[in-house]
Write a structure and sequence with these properties.
The chain is α+β, with helices and mostly antiparallel strands. It contains six helices and eight strands. The strands form two sheets. It has a six-stranded mixed sheet, with helices on one face. The two termini are 20 Å apart. The relative contact order is 0.23.
């Protein structure tokens, strides 16, 4: 593996359990960590973040091999598997901790995020995307029990009713980008 091709991406689009489950299924994506970013204290605990006390977003940070999946493709998965038109809300999860956000790691990522948002606003969302684009800052890993959550608890009601439909949509729209079993 050529490490020059390995890049980092950070996304927030509601509950990190959902986001992690979606991106884990993509070819070329590895080292996914559920956690928090974009807030104003160091090492925030989950209980404080979910109460909206820290300014952090629930997010994932991942590594990807750009020879297998492009940043643009990651963005398209991101926008397809959540509602980027609701401010600080995804379904029943409400608050800035559930905001739609792209935390870019390079000027190229920032420009690509802006390009994709502009295109989707014209072609799909009628100018209603509220996703923030912010320079990546400190990322804090969530507690162990939040890592690999969907794979560890697939029969939990939250996983069945909230995450399963996202996985189904991913399989329908991005079948060509899924890992082989």
């Amino acid at each position: 593996m050529n490490t020059e091709n390995i890049k980092t991406a950070t996304f927030a689009n509601g509950c990190f359990w959902c986001t992690e489950a979606v991106f884990q299924r993509l070819e070329g994506v590895s080292d996914i960590v559920s956690g928090f970013t974009g807030g104003n204290i160091k090492n925030p605990p989950y209980r404080e973040v979910v109460q909206g006390r820290t300014g952090h977003a629930e997010a994932i940070q991942l590594k990807y091999d750009e020879t297998l999946i492009s940043y643009e493709e990651l963005l398209l998965v991101f926008f397809t598997t959540h509602d980027p038109t609701t401010l600080n809300r995804q379904g029943n999860d409400v608050g800035t901790q559930y905001r739609s956000a792209i935390f870019y790691h390079s000027e190229e990522q920032k420009l690509m995020a802006e390009k994709v948002i502009n295109r989707l606003n014209e072609e799909v969302f009628d100018g209603k995307i509220v996703t923030e684009i912010t320079q990546a800052s400190a990322f804090y890993s969530a507690e162990f029990e939040h890592q690999n959550f969907y794979n560890n608890h697939p029969s939990q009601p939250y996983c069945r009713f909230i995450i399963d439909p996202k996985i189904k949509k991913l399989k329908e729209v991005f079948a060509h980008k899924l890992r082989s079993a």
